[in-house]
């Protein structure tokens, strides 16, 4: 029994001894690892992209210097294209600046036994230098920087039958600033590839064809603009179609497209600016084939902008295709560009002459008296009276125009021997160019007043020039 106990005691002692030895070896191995990896990189260490496992500072720096000198960066472009930038092209080189020693000092050497099978990546860009001018020149020489196609957003266009979405153009326009940033980052950290697509170096469209907002806009535009309105200005036309109505669209509080009445009002105002004729300057051909410029007066066309805006808004909203005439505040004899037409009264103030035309034919041609107060311009015939009281005086055959003026007979006027019905004899008898006796009215002789009156109708234009 004693022998058996003695054997067990010896075995236990041996086991304890073995364990102690193993512990001592483990501690020694751990201590050696800590010591070793204070001067060497841990397993799985990558510095600037290069495997520096178990390398000392000197070995790592030699490797970095060698690999940096042989460095080539692949620049991958859109469409599977590829270019390269080599170290010698940009003056790339490795310079020891203490960064490797600092990395060794900061690595987790006390946990060295956990590093096996793991990877630790370090970047020390300060230890790599390049020539900025050579880099700029190299980037500029890259094929991807030449003959670029700019991106174009997907858009809605009128194809002739309806609005359709025109897909985006991706293009090949490189964002140079972004590309330079990525290249500098790569060459200073040892990355071997810059992919322009993945690294965001292209200028891309901001709107693509599958954009939900764009698709909805196109649908709404086709719905709202499905109408054609043609404005009839006699010898001229204005067409309100898809493209015009497109410019009247705005977004409501829900982001949907709708008609903007203010934009329609602006369009009607543009029609008025183009087609209203009251007071505008006109080129007029006289009875003796002269061309004179006449402006002022109250004759002509005036669009009622408020009423026409409301009407046009409703027509478009109701999708009523039509040929329409605008709502007018005032109309004239002709809607042609020549709105005077061929039936009018012509008054030549300097030559004291009045001519009445019917359909382009002179039917009355007589002399007149006028004064410096008679205004030039194109006026509309207002009231017509066969007898009237003007300033307490009886006047026959008065044709009112302008602001209280008229073409009239004045029986009380006596011009001696002048043949008042003949403009040639009138000119010979006296000079009336600065005479103020008519108060701005145009006076015709008694024997011509009835003929003038009978050939003039209300709303006829009166062209007066000096």
Task: Name a few traits of the molecule.
12 helices, rod-shaped, alpha+beta, 4-stranded mixed β-sheet, 466 residues
Task: Report on this structure.
- The protein is of the alpha+beta class and 466 residues long.
- It is 31% helix and 25% strand.
- It contains twelve helices and 28 strands.
- The protein has helices at residues 2-36, 57-69, 87-90, 99-106, 132-141, 176-189, 212-224, 242-246, 261-275, 305-317, 423-429, 446-454, and strands spanning 45-47, 50-51, 72-77, 81-86, 93-94, 120-122, 128-129, 155-158, 163-166, 193-195, 229-232, 237-240, 249-251, 257-259, 282-285, 291-294, 302-303, 322-324, 328-330, 344-348, 353-358, 361-367, 377-380, 384-390, 393-401, 405-409, 442-444, 461-465.
- The strands form ten sheets. The chain has a five-stranded mixed sheet with strand order 22-21-20-28-23. A four-stranded mixed sheet has the order 24-25-26-27. A three-stranded mixed sheet has the order 2-1-6, with helices on one face.
- Strand 8 and strand 9 (163-166) form a beta hairpin.
- Helix 9 crosses helix 10.
- The longest helix is centred in the first third of the chain and has 35 residues, at 2-36.
């Amino acid at each position: 029994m004693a022998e058996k106990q003695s054997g067990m005691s010896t075995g236990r002692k041996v086991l304890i001894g073995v364990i102690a030895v193993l512990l001592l070896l483990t501690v020694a191995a751990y201590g050696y690892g800590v010591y070793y990896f204070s001067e060497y990189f841990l397993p799985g260490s990558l510095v600037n992209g290069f495997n520096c496992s178990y390398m000392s500072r000197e070995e790592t720096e030699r490797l970095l210097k060698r690999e940096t000198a042989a460095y080539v960066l692949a620049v991958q472009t859109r469409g599977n294209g590829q270019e390269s930038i080599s170290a010698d092209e940009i003056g790339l080189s490795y310079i020891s600046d203490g960064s490797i020693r600092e990395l060794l000092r900061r690595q987790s050497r006390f946990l060295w036994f956990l590093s096996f099978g793991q990877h630790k990546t370090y970047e020390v860009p300060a230890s790599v230098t390049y020539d900025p001018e050579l880099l700029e020149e190299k980037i500029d020489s890259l094929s991807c920087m030449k003959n670029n196609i700019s991106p174009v957003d997907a858009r809605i266009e009128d194809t002739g039958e309806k609005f359709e979405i025109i897909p985006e153009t991706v293009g090949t326009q490189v964002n140079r600033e972004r590309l330079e940033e990525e290249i500098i980052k790569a060459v200073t950290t040892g990355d071997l590839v810059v992919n322009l697509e993945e690294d965001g170096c292209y200028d891309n469209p901001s709107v693509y064809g599958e954009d939900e907002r764009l698709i909805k806009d196109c649908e709404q535009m086709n719905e709202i603009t499905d109408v054609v309105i043609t404005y009839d200005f006699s010898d001229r036309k204005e067409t309100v179609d898809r493209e015009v109505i497109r410019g009247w669209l705005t977004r409501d509080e829900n982001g949907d497209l709708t008609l903007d009445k203010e934009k329609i009002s602006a369009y009607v105002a543009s029609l008025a600016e183009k087609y209203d004729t009251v007071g505008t300057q006109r080129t007029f051909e006289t009875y003796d084939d002269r061309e004179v410029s006449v402006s002022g007066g109250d004759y002509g066309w005036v669009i009622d902008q408020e009423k026409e805006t409301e009407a046009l808004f409703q027509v478009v909203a109701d999708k009523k295709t039509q040929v329409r005439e605008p709502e007018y505040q005032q109309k004239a004899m002709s809607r042609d560009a020549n709105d005077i037409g061929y039936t009018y009264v012509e008054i030549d103030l300097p030559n004291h002459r009045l001519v009445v035309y019917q359909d382009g034919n002179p039917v009355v041609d007589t002399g007149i008296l006028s004064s410096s107060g008679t205004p030039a311009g194109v006026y509309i015939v207002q009231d017509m009276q066969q007898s009237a009281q003007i300033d307490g005086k009886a006047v026959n055959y008065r044709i009112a125009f302008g602001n209280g003026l008229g073409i009239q007979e004045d029986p009380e006027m006596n011009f001696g021997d002048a043949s008042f019905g003949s403009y040639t004899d009138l000119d010979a008898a006296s000079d009336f160019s600065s005479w103020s006796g008519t108060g701005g009215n145009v006076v015709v002789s008694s024997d011509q007043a009835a003929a003038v009156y009978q050939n003039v109708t209300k709303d006829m234009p009166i062209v007066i020039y000096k």
